[in-house]
């Protein structure tokens, strides 16, 4: 598969001089087109920083980041971001929220009918077309998150970046959205990079799991290719030897980090 997102010797420091804080160092990572990669690691190790660098929301202080062969120099519609909190505009309906993004990306080239079709199609993709005319306050948290994903996908991004998109949801809603995301990504082929704290979520969704070591100056400690066939069904995976192996490997890694973080008790 073609390399689509490349990070070469990427590092990120916040502040300057004596107050400089090195969050990330020496990050080398290549992600193929259509690949699903999760970033996992302890709280504060730099997962969101890494995602924000790829999104172009924060300029890297070291190294080079490329997307589809072009240097990432800022945010762009080729890289859509979904955050933990939906970030919908409360004064617009679900459809209008999606339409706003669609108009920004395709408004110069396409007529009003086509823009409307795109917006409705994106809501349908996440199973939310029935709530097109509802306002964010009138729908549940999981539904809002679906609309946020629809808005991101409606821009037809080359890369979908997700920062703990299901972190604020109950486990059943979370499971439904994980399944929906798997189906959507299979249908669209979108390259996806997702931050998560949830080991099962990481193994279920990923082609590769990127484990970040402890910070400060965190770097990639290990990359685990899951090697699980698709489509994946959570009920089948519960008894799959490879699934359990991946799960154990990530858990061992996180526990190892935890022990390093905690001072030894005398
Ligand atoms: N704008 C900033 N200025 C200074 N330090 C920052 C800034 N943003 C993040 N940091 C620091 O960089 C480190 C990495 O933060 P980041 O939010 O990327 O970690 P994370 O792995 O996503 O954490 P969590 O899992 O808790 O969300 C942390 O020590 C954090 O305090």
UniProtKB/TrEMBL annotation:
One GO molecular function term of this record is: ATP binding
- Tell me where in or outside the cell this protein is found: Cell membrane
UniProt record similarity statement:
Belongs to the ABC transporter superfamily.
**Chief site of localization:** membrane
What's the protein name? Answer: ABC transporter ATP-binding protein
The alphabetized UniProt keywords are: ATP-binding, Cell membrane, Membrane, Nucleotide-binding, Transport
Annotated ABC transporter domain residues: 5-239
How the protein sits in the membrane? Answer: Peripheral membrane protein
